[in-house]
Queue: 2 jobs
Job 1
Amino acid sequence: MPDQLTLAPPPAPSPAVPPPAPAAISTARRRWGALTLLRYAAVLAGAVVMLFPFLWTVVTSITPEGSLADGPRLWVEDPTTAAYGTLLETLPMWRILLNSFWIAVVSTLLQLVTGTMAAYGFARLTFRGKNVVFALYLATLMVPLQVLVVPLFIEMKVLNLQDTYMALLAPSIASAFGVFLLKQAVESVPRELDEAATIDGAGHLRIFATIIVPLIRPALATVAVFAFMGSWNSFLWPLVVIRSPEFMTLPLGLSTLHGQFTTEWDVVMAGSVFSIVPIAIVYLLAQRHIIAGVAHSGLK
Amino acid sequence: MTATTHGAPKAVATTRHTRGAGSRGRAWRNRGWVLFFLAPSAVPLLLFTAVPMISSIWVSLHDWNLISAMRWVGLDNYTDLLTDEQTREVFLHTLLYCAGYLPLVYVGGLGLALALNQRMPARAFFRAAYFLPVVTSWVVVALVWKWLLNPSNGLVNTILGALGLPEPGWWTDPTWALPAVILSSAWKDLGFVMVIMLAGLQAIPSDVVEAATVDGAGPWQRFWRITLPLLSPSTFFVVVISLINGFQVFDQVYVMTGGGPQGASQVVVGQVYDLTFRYGRAGEASALSWILFAVILLITAVQIRGQKRWVHHA
C-alpha cells in the first residue's frame, strides 16, 4: 500500500501501438477531443449542482424576510444581516460553535490515544484470551448507536451526567473501528524494529512512542478524519441527551432553530451558514489529508 | 542415600523455584502492561457500549415507559413488532431509501471518479468541490435541501415551473417525501463515493489497461472487462458501508420530514426514537432496534459470503 496517497493523474500511456495512418489519427483525435469536452461539461455541471446550494444558503440568509415569499432571487438588492441578528438572539451560537469544535477535537484525540494504545496491546503483547478480548471489541463495533440510545440515556440519568459535556463525549472516548484500523497498521510495522530497540534497552513505552506511532501516521490520519467527522455530524445522541442550549452542538442547535422558525428560512439559512463556514475553512486547510484519509479507508 | 544424590534434586528444585518466581514476576509485569495499554479503551467501551448493550436486551423484554416500574413481558415486544403493520412499513421505507440512494451515489460517484481520473484543467478544484458536502453535517444538508425543495417558493420548483415541468410537493407530499430525502442524501455522499472509487481506480496497474488497448479493446470493453472488475473491492466497500449506514438513516429524515407526512417517510431509527421519546414505549423501541441490528448483520453477512463470486482481490 502506498504510504502517502497521491491523487495525481497517471502518466499518459506510452505509444506502444505502431502509429496509425495520418487520416485515422485526425478522426480519432477529433472524436477524442469532443469526448473530452463532453466530459468536462458534465464535470462542470456537476460542480455547479454541488456548489450552488451553498451559494443559495448564503443568498437566502441575507435576503429580507418579507421578500422570500416572492420567489427566488439570485441578486439581492437590499441585503440585510437581520437574520443573523435574530439567530444570535435566539441561541448562543458562538458557544454552540465552540462546543461543536471542542467536542470534536477532544473526542478525536481520545480516540487516537485509546485506539493506538489498544492497537499496540493487541499487536505486540501476548496474553491469554487475547483473541477473545479482540472479538469482544469487534462485537461493540457491530452494535449501532440506536440500539444503545435508550439504556445509554438512562445510564447518563443515573450517573447524573445528563446535559453535560461528559455525556456528549461518553460514547466516543474509544472506538473499536479505530482500534481495528490501527491494529492492522501496527501489525504492518516490522517486528525487527521493536527487537532492535529492545536490544538497545528500550521498553514498551519507548517502542510505542518512538517507533510505532511515527510509522502508523497514515492510519492515524484516517482514524482522526473519521472521528472528527463523526463527532461533528453527530445528531441522534446530542438530541437525546442535551436539553440546554449552552451544551448543544451545531446540528442540535440548528434542528432546534428550525423547530422555532419553521417558515423563516432566512434565519434557518443564517444558522446553516454559521455552521458551514467554520468546517469549510477546516476542510480547505486540511483538504489533502482529509481526502487521503478517506481514500485510505477504502483500500483496506 | 549419599550427599550427592541428595543434593542434586535439591539444586534442581532451587533453580526451578527461582525460575518460577522470575517468570511469575515477568508475567505480572506483562499483565501490568496489558492493563496499561488496553484499559483506556476497554473501560469506556465496557461502560458506554457493553453495559448499555446488555441493558438494551433486558429493556427489550419489558414493558417500560422510562418512568414507572418495568413489567416483564418476555418476547412479546418482538412478536408484537414482527406482526405489526407499522414495523413492516418503516422497514419498507428504509429499504426504499437504500434502493434509491445506493444506485444514485454509486453510479454518480463512479462516473465522477472516471471523469476525474484523467488529466483536465482545475481537477483539484472539482475534487474539492464534490467533496465539500461530505464534511457538511447531515442536519445542515437536510435544512438546505428542505429550503431548495420548498414546494411553494423553493428554488427547485421555481426552475421546474419555469421549464413547464410538474412541481412536486416534495416533503409535504407523502409520495415525494422519501424521494426528497434520497435526493439530498445522495447529494451529500456523492463526493465520498467518488474519493473511494478514485483511490480504487488509481490502484489499477496501468500496464493491464495498456495491454488490453494493445489487444484491441475499445474504451467500452476496457471499462466493462477490466476497470469495473478490478474496481470490485472498492465497489464492495461502498456497497457494504452504504447499506450499513443506509439502514440506520435518521438525521435527514428527522429534520426534513419528521417521518411524515402521515408517516409516509418514517424509517426504522425514526420509529425507535419516536417509540422511546414520544410514546414512552422504551421496551418496544429496544426490541425494534435489535430487530434492525439483526437485519443489518444478516445483510452484511450475506454480502461478505457472496463477495467471492464477484470481488476480485488483487
Note: The domain at 76-310 of chain B is CATH 1.10.3720.10 (MetI-like fold).
Job 2
Amino acid sequence: MNTNKLNIKTMKINHLNITKTTNFFVSALFCLTLITSCSSDDDNPPPVNPEEIITNVTLTFTNNADATDIVVLASVAPDGQDGTSNESVTGNFTAGATYDLSLAITNASETPADDVLNDDIIPEADEHFFSYAVNNINLTMTRDGDDINGPNGSKLGVNTTWVAGAASTGNVQITLTHEPTSTDDSDGFGTATGGSEDLNITFNNVDVQ
Amino acid sequence: MKQLIVGIVIAFSCFGYNQNCTYTFLGELSDFHDGTPIISATIYIKEHDKYLVSDFDGKFKIENLCSGVLNLTISHIGCETKTVSYVIKGDTHKAIQIEHHIEELNEISVTGNTSKKETKTAQETVLKANTLKKYSALNLGDALKEVSGVSSINTGNSIVKPMINGMHSSRLLILNNNVRLQDQDWGIEHAPNIDINSADQISVIKGSGALAYGGDAIGGVIVVNPIRIIRKDTLYGRTIIGGQSNGRGYNISSTFNRSYSSGWFANIQGSFKQNGDFRAPDYNLTNTGLKSHAFTMNTGKKKFESGFEVFYSYLDNEIGILGASHIGSTFDLERAINSGQPSLINDFSYDINAPKQEVTHHLAKASYYKRFKNFGKINLQYDYQNNQRLEFDVRIGDRRNIPAVDLKLQTHTFLADINLDANLNRRINFGIMGRFQDNFANPDTGVRRLIPDYEKYDFGAYTTAEWQISDDLIFDAGLRYDFNRIDAKKFYLKSRWEERGYNVDFLNIILEEFPTQLLTNPVFNFHNISASAGIKYNINDSNQIIFNYSLASRPPNVSELFSDGLHHSAARFELGNLRFDQEIANRLSASYAFNSSKFSLLAEVFYSRVNDFIYLRPFDFILTNRGPFPLWQYQQTNAELFGIDVTATYNLTDALQWQNKTAFIKGYDLETDLPLIDMPSFNTTNQITYNNEAWYNFSASLKSEWVFEQNEFPDFNFEIEDQLTGEITLIDISTPPPAYHLLHLYNEATFSFTEKTNLKVALSINNILNTSYRNYLNRLRYFADDLGRNITLQLELNY
C-alpha cells in the first residue's frame, strides 16, 4: 500500500481546491449580502442581431445579348431564418436567350447590410455548394469556367449561365448546402448530399416567353 | 450494538491523603430530547472498577466515595456512550442527559442492509453504494433505471435525463447533498450535473411526497447523498478504474475519507472519464465522445449536539452530440428518418466537434445544525450554484468556435428548518427557504437568446408531521407554500410579438423598441400550495401497505414561458406562452410489500391527474428561406397518468436468485383524448443472479431487458410540401421504434488482501448479442441505432 504517496497527492489537490472553494464562498456570500448589486443593475441587456443570418437573396438574370432584359427572383426574410420569407418574381425569360446569373446574398438587418456571399460564403467556398433545380420550366444552366472552386472538385455555383428554352411556366429553386458530404455538378444544376441547408428557396410561377 | 463498546477513559487516580470516603453521589439519567428517565443504563465507575444499573426513575447511587475525581461511563441500548467526570467534594447530586434515540435519529453510521429513507409514506426506493458503483463510468440517469418505474429520456447515450413514472425535467427535483440542483433542468438535452461517483446513496421518491425539498415535484424527487460520516478515527479510500470497449472509454475515480472520533471529518473525491465515438452494431456513432471531470470535497465537524459542514462540488462535461443529428431543414429530418442510418459516419475518434455541449457546474454549501434538549434540532444552510452552459452548433466562418447558447445561471439559497423530535411518536418539521437566481444569456453568441436574462425569487415555507400511532401504524402529513417571482428581460421579434397577440395583452411591458425587436419586461408572480398525507401500516411481519396522497403545484419554467425561435438542433420553431398558469397535480398512490425469507414483492400503483399540464406539440408551419419548418407550441391541457411498478425477488436456492422488475404506465391528454407523447412503453427485466461468497464473493448475473413497442402515442406526424415539385411528403416523427430485447451479463469477485484492503473485479457485457435497436425515449432515434455490444472491465480497490 502506497497510502502515504497517495495522501500527499490528495493534499495538494485539496489545497488547490480549497483556495478555489474559498473564492467561491467569498463571492457567494458577498453576493448574498449585496443581492441587488449582483442581480445586475437596471441596465437593459443589448439586443442580439444575429450575424450569420441571411435576409435577402436576389438572383438577377441578365440577357447576354440585351442588358435591359433582366429577370429578378428575390426572397426577403426580414427576420432571417427566424421568420417567414416572401418571394417575388420580376420579369420573364425570353425563349432562346442566354442569361448570366448574378447572386446577391445579404443580411439587411445590419446597417450597412452585410454581404454574406462575399464575406462568408466565397472565402469558405470549399465548405459550400449552390445547387439549383427547376420544375416545369424550360431552363438549363452551366457553371462557368471562372466559377469559384467549391468542395470535392465541384464548382461553387456563383458564376453560372442560363439558357431559356421553349415558353413554359414553372418553379426555380436555389439551395445552399453547408459542408456537404458529396457534391455532383456534372449536370450544371448540381446535387449535394449530407451537410445542412443554409438556404432553400423556391420561386413559383417563373415564365419563359 | 457497536455503540455499546465502552469508550476508553483516561485514568485519574484518587490522590491526596487523609481522604474522607463517606460521600454519596446521586445520579439521575434522562433523555436529551424529552427528559424521560433512562432506565437500566449501565454506569461504569472507573475509580471503583464497578458497574451499576439505573433504576426505573433513571437514578443511581454511589456510596462511600472519597473526595477527588469521579469518572463515569454511561451506556445504554440505543444511546451513544457518554463519559462524564466530576470532582467530588461532598455529597453530590447530578442530572445527566444522555443522547437516547440515536438510532432513530439516524445520526450514526448505518451499515449492513439498513438504509435511511427520506420519507415514510411515499413510494421511495433507495439505491446504495454497491449498486451505484456499477455505474461509475455512466450517468445518474443510467443508475436510476435500477428502480422499477424509472426510465430516462436521452439525447444520445451521454445526455441521460431521469424520468420517473413518465415525468422528467422540471417535474423532477434533484438534490445533491441537500442542495436542490439548479442547472437549467428545463431542456430535454440538459442532463443533471451530478457525478455518480460522488454519490453514496440515492433515494428515488415517486411523486411529490417529500415536501421539505419543494412543492413542485410533480414527477418525483431524487435525493443524492454523499458518503455518511462515521464518528470514529478512520482513514479509508477507494479507487475505481474502468475501461469500456464501446467508445474505447476509460474512467478513474478516487475517494478518500478521513474522520476522527472528535467529529471532525474530511472527504475528497475526484473522477475523470473519457470516451470516443460510440458504436452501434453496424456503424460508428460519429461525434459521440465525452470528456468529464468532477471533483467533490467536504469537511466539517459532526457531533450529536451540533455540527457544521462545508461542501463543494465541481463538474465539467464536454459532450459530443451525434454529428448526423445536425439537421438544417425538415427535409433533412425526413431523409434521416427514411434512410435508416446516419448521414455522417466517420472512423473512430476521440475528437469532440460541434454540435456539442460544454457544461460546468459549481456547487458550494455551508450548513450548521444544533440540537436543543427537550426540543429538537435546528438546521441552517446556505448554498451557491453556478451553472455555465455552452452549446456549440455547426456554424460557419469566424463563428465556428463561438457557442450558439451561452447561459450562466447563478443561484443562492438559504434554508432553515427545525425538527421537533422531543416526542419521537409525533415529530414535526418546519422550515423556510429563500432563493435568488440570476440567469445571464451572453449576447456574444450572435444568436437570439432562446432563454432570456431573468431574475427569479423564491420563497417557501413548509411543515411536515409524522405520528407513530402504534408500532405498526405511521401517519404523516405536510403542507407547503411557495412564492415564485420571475422578472425577465426578453427580446421579441416584432413580427412574433404581434402574431402571438402580445401587443394586445402585454402592451405595458415594453421597455425599448429596436428596428426589428422589442425589449420587454415580463414579471410573473406565482403562489403555489402543495400538500401530502400518507399512512403506512404493517399488517404483520411480512405484509405492509402504504397509501399516499399528494398535491403539487409547478409554475411554468422559463422555457415554457419564453421560448420563441428556431431550435436549431431539432429543426423546429418552439414557442412558449406568456399566458401560462402553473400545473397542479393530484396524485394518489398505494404500495404493497411482501417479504419472506424466500420471496419479496413490491407493487406500487399510482394515479395522477395534472391540470394545466404543459407540453410541446407541432402546431403549424413557417416557410423560411431555408424551406418550410414545423412550428411547435407549448400547450396546456389536463392530463392523467397511471401505472404500476413491480419488483419481485425470489431466492431459488441460497446461491441463486431471480428478480423481476416491470413497469407499466399510461398517460392521456384529457382534452384531445390523445395519449401523451414520450411515455415509456411497457418494460420488464428479468435477472438471474448466482452468488458464491466462499469463492471470493463471486457473483454473476444475467439480465434480460425487454422493452415493448409503445403502441399508444399521439400522431403528430405532419406533411410538408416540396416547394419545387409540389409533392407532399409525410414526416413520420411519431411512430415509435419496434420492441427490443437485450441481454446483459455482469460478474464480480472480491479479493481481500488485508482486513481493510480488497480489490473488486467486475466484468460486464452489455447488449451481449449486439442487437440493433432504437429507443422511443431517445431523441436521436431518428438518426441512428442505439449502442451495440459493450464490454466493461472495472477494478475497484478499497483501502
Note: The two ends of chain A are 91 Å apart (CA to CA).
